[in-house]
Specification:
396 residues; 40% helix; single chain
Length: 396
């Protein structure tokens, strides 16, 4: 249910029947009911619409302005009875008196799409509040632009942050235990060295226990430190955590982990943390690759060694052709990039990380002139508008 508070002039020619018809048409396209509420109920909601049903509503708005001025007002218009004109007058007044808002106007499909993005943004933000991310070890030495702000995460998202020593993970690994589940069984069924799979699953068990201990919704690990200490990698562990709904990132990259948490909250989709590896600007294609990915994103996969070290266990996956969104945000949430594309192929080169996807893109200027670090997040579906709505909400 999406609540709305309605104002209109009693002199308006618009009838209750017409207003109900418009609200009903929007509800049908949204697939969710718009429900008229009182002013008190409107003020209690995190997200609600202000429906300006007609011209001449400005005076009625002034009567409630003192109660509304602290809110970012989403002003819904019907396109009839001077609703748009009144909404523009109201928004101008709001902005001149320290308030903020936007007008939702267009055909039914356009307005419904915007409401859907706004609803997703508010629900995503609510879902992150009170949760925590963790980093095991420091960011890898080569991540020289890996800046992040736990204060900004808490202030803007209500999202906590925990730093965990790598030695704590190594102590957990020595327990050589992991929970059996559908994903551990899936990986053990693959044609690969069973001893190496067991070692990789011990890492999963260790990381899972740390996530439980610190109540983390996501974790990133300085995984290259595992190569010399326990002689395996974190690729399989991160694949399973991501499949289970715990955001798992590589190389201690906190901005990438934060990006996973934000995009995951917005879309509810599993995600691929990856490196841009090659652009063909003439053909309009980009190749992305990494050694871990949740099996829930793949049509099938096999196991391979970790690319850089040639040891451990990595996931070599195949994608179905699909629309996708490429996303990244700064570690202080000051900037983001969301770009839609289409997955067209799953090539393989032994000179790149093991899971590789080719994406059709229409623009490369962001990547070549103003990238946000190297790691990016890819999920299925087209979600750029939802990401934009989320970041506009943070600025409101």
């Amino acid at each position: 249910m999406i609540p709305y508070y309605q104002i209109r002039s009693p002199l308006s020619q618009i009838t209750e029947e017409k207003m109900t018809r418009y609200i009903g048409a929007l509800s049908e396209v949204l697939g969710e009911n718009l429900e008229k509420v009182s002013l008190e109920q409107y003020l209690d909601e995190n997200f609600a619409l202000l429906y300006v049903a007609s011209g001449g509503s400005e005076g009625f708005f002034l009567e409630v302005f003192e109660q509304l001025k602290a809110r970012h007002c989403y002003i819904l218009t019907s396109g009839e009875s001077n609703s748009l004109a009144a909404s523009m007058e109201i928004l101008s007044f709001l902005r001149k008196h320290g308030g903020s808002g936007e007008i939702l106007h267009g055909d039914t499909e356009q307005v419904a799409a915007r409401i859907r993005s706004l609803t997703n943004a508010h629900r995503a933000l609510a879902s992150l509040r009170g949760k925590k991310l963790g980093c095991i070890g420091a960011p890898s030495d080569w991540l020289i632009a890996c800046n992040y702000s736990p204060d900004a995460m808490m202030e803007k998202l209500g999202l906590g942050f925990v730093s965990i020593e790598i030695d704590e993970l190594l102590r957990e690994y020595e327990k050589k235990e992991y929970p059996e589940n559908e994903y551990t069984q899936l990986f053990k069924s693959k044609d690969f060295d069973p001893a190496e799979i067991e070692k990789a699953l011990y890492v999963y068990g260790a990381m899972k226990r740390l996530c439980d201990r610190y109540q983390l919704c996501g974790v990133t690990v300085r995984c290259f430190d595992l190569l010399d200490t326990i002689h395996t990698t974190g690729c399989l562990a991160l694949a399973i955590l991501n499949a289970e709904g715990i955001y798992g990132g590589c190389e201690g990259d906190v901005p990438a982990l934060l990006s996973m948490a934000v995009l995951g909250a917005i879309t509810g989709e599993p995600m691929f943390l990856c490196n841009p590896s090659r652009f063909d600007t003439k053909a309009g294609t980009a190749l992305f690759a990494h050694c871990t990915i949740p099996p829930t994103m793949l049509k099938d996969f096999c196991l391979n060694t970790h690319f850089e070290s040639g040891i451990g266990v990595a996931v070599q996956g195949n994608f179905a052709e699909d629309d996708c969104t490429i996303f990244k945000c700064e570690g202080d949430l000051s900037r983001f990039h969301a770009q839609e594309g289409h997955i067209i192929d799953t090539p393989f080169s032994d000179m790149l990380c093991r899971t590789q996807i080719k994406v059709q893109l229409d623009d490369f200027s962001y990547f070549l002139t103003r990238p946000i670090n190297n790691h990016h997040i890819i999920c299925r579906g087209r979600h750029a508008a939802d990401a934009e709505a989320f970041f506009r909400l943070l600025q409101a």
